[in-house]
# Entry
Amino acid sequence: MNIVEFAKILNLSIGTVSRALNDRAEVSPKTRQMVLEKAEELGFVRNTNARRLVIGRNYMIRIECPTSTHILSDRYLVELARGVEEVAGAHGYDLLLHLGTHRSDAVDVQEVDGLVIVAGSETTADDIRRLTQKGRTPAVVIAWATPLDFPAASYVCLDTLPGVREALECLASLGHRRIGYIGSGQPGQRLRDAFPRLMAEAGLTWDPALAREAGTTPDDGCRAALELLALSEPPTALFARTDVLASGAVQAVSQLGKTVPGDVSVIGHDNIEAAALVNPPLTTVAINIPDVAVLAVKALLAMITEKADPITLTVGTHLIVRRSCGPASS
Amino acid sequence: MNIVEFAKILNLSIGTVSRALNDRAEVSPKTRQMVLEKAEELGFVRNTNARRLVIGRNYMIRIECPTSTHILSDRYLVELARGVEEVAGAHGYDLLLHLGTHRSDAVDVQEVDGLVIVAGSETTADDIRRLTQKGRTPAVVIAWATPLDFPAASYVCLDTLPGVREALECLASLGHRRIGYIGSGQPGQRLRDAFPRLMAEAGLTWDPALAREAGTTPDDGCRAALELLALSEPPTALFARTDVLASGAVQAVSQLGKTVPGDVSVIGHDNIEAAALVNPPLTTVAINIPDVAVLAVKALLAMITEKADPITLTVGTHLIVRRSCGPASS
DNA sequence: AATAATTTCATGAATATTGTCGAATTTGCC
DNA sequence: GGCAAATTCGACAATATTCATGAAATTATT
# Structure
C-alpha cells in the first residue's frame, strides 16, 4: 500500500496524510491522530526510498572498519557499533556496516549522509580522502593518538597515555620503584617514547635496562618477564603493552615459584575479555568505548545537520583496578 | 549531477545512459563503453534512492541482534557480520545493522529485502513474527538447537552436541573413565539432558554424582570443580559448559596443588578469546561461524531472489584441541 | 543484380515509481 | 465579508523501462 491508496481509504488528500505522518504543524491534531492510528491499524509504512529521494537525505551513516590490524578488537567494534547506533538511531539514522578493507572501491557513497571510519594501523590520509569522496561526505575518524593528515574529517583520537600515567601512579603509591616495561614492538612506539616522561611524572626513575620489546603472544610476554626478573636488581612490577603479554608475564612469575601480586605486580593494557578471567584478574588500562562512540556520532551529526566544521577530540584511557597489583615486596 | 545532466553532456538520451549503466543488451558496445568511461571520469553515480524506488528492491539486508543474552558473544557477532557481509556483498547487498533488543518497535521494514535474526535466549516466535511483518519479509534465524515455532522463516540451528561428542570421545581415548560435568544452569539444559547419552556413545558410563550446576563466573566454576575433586572417587577429567567455568576449574586444580593436564584434564565450551590465553590453553568446543554466516545468507538470498521456501539447516560444533587434556592419571 | 520488403538494432520520448512541499483553495468562525 | 486555520492541488525529486521511431542490415522477389 502506498500513500495514495492510504489517503483514499482515509478520505484525505495525499498532502494531508504526508504532513500528519511528518508531524508538521499545519494539520489538525484530530486528523493527525486519526492518520497515525489508521496507519498503525492498516500497517501502512511510507516507502523509505521515495521519502529519501524527495527529501534528499538518506538518514544513514556507514561505519567503516578494516579487517586487519584493528585499533579496536572485535569486541570493541561491537561496543562501538552499539554506541553509534544508539545515538545515531535516536536521531533517526540507520547504521550501515562496512567491514573489510578500506581499500575496496565499490563503496557507493551517495547512499549515506556520513561516515564513521575506524582507522586501522595501516589506514592513510589517502584512504580517508577516497572514502569521503575528497571530503564531500562528512566523516569522523577514530584514530590513534593523533589525527591523520586530512583536515576535512573530524577525529576522535584515542590517547593511551592518561591510563598509563594512572597505572604508574598506582604502582608508585604502592611503593614500587623499579618498574619493568614489556612492549609489543612497532605499534606501541608512541607509548614507548613517552614512558620515561610518564615515569618521571609519577615520581619514578626510568631505567632503560628494564625495558624489553616482546611480540604479540603470551609466550613472548613470558620470555620477556623471565628476562627482567632474572636481573640482579629485578623490577617489582611489570607493565605490559597488551593484556596478552601481561598474561604471559603472570605465567612467568608463577614459573619462578612466586605469586602475583604478592611478589610481583603486573599491569596490562587493552582490557580484553580475557583480562578479567586470568588468575589473578588483571589490572589493566582501558578506554571507554561508549564515550568514543557518543563523541564521534555527535561530531558527525553536527557536520551533517549543521554543516559544522570538523573538530578533533581526544579520549583518554583509564586504569581498571583488579587484583594483579599489590604493595611492593621489599 | 543527475542522469539528466549527465546524458546531456554525453549527447544521449536518458534511456540510453540508463541502459548502458545497467548493462543491458539493447545498447551498442561502443556506446556502453563510452558511457562507463565518462561516468568514471566525471564522477557520476546514480542516485541510489531513485534507483531503488523504481526497481522496488532495496539491495539491503538487516542483521538483527539482541543486546542481552547472546547466543553468540560479541566476538562471534563480528565474525558473523563479516561473513554475512562478504557473501551478501558479493550479490550487491548492503548490510544494515540493528543491535539492541528485538522488542524495539521502530524498525522500518520496507527498507530491507531480508533479515538475518540472531535469536537470543529470550527471543520468541512472536518476536520473529513481528520482525518479519508476519512473514512478509524473508528472514533467516540463527537459533540454538531447534527452530522456533514460526515456519515462515528459515533457520540455521547451532547444535552443540557433535563437538561435545568429540570431546568425550577424545577423553575416552585418553583413558578417562570418570568425567565430571560442570553446567551453567538454565541455558545449558539441552546439553545437560543429552550428556548421559553422549557419554554412552563414547563408551563411558554416566555417574550423576559427577554433575554440578554452577553459575557463570570463574569462581562458580572453581567451586564446582573443588567439590567434584573432593569426592572419594574424583573424576579425572572435567567438562565445563563454558570456557569461563573451565578457567575457574583450572584454577581449582592448581589450588589443590595439582596440574592441568597432568592430574586432571579440562575441556571448555565456546572458544572465547580467553580460552587460548589461559594457562594451559584450553581445549574447547567451538562452532564455525563463517560457515553459519554463509549458510544463512545463501538461504536468505534464495528466499529473496527465487522465492525459495524456508529451510532449516543445522551446523554442529567441533572440538579444538589445545593443551588442557592429557592421559588419565591412574 | 537491383529494388522492395522485412527484420534487427540503437535510440529517444514518455510514463511509472512514491512521497514532500509550496501555493492555492476551501472551510469555519466571528 | 473578512480572517485564519485546515486542506487540497500540482509540481518535483531521479531513475528504469515500455513503446515508438528511424536507420541500417538482411532477406525476398523479379
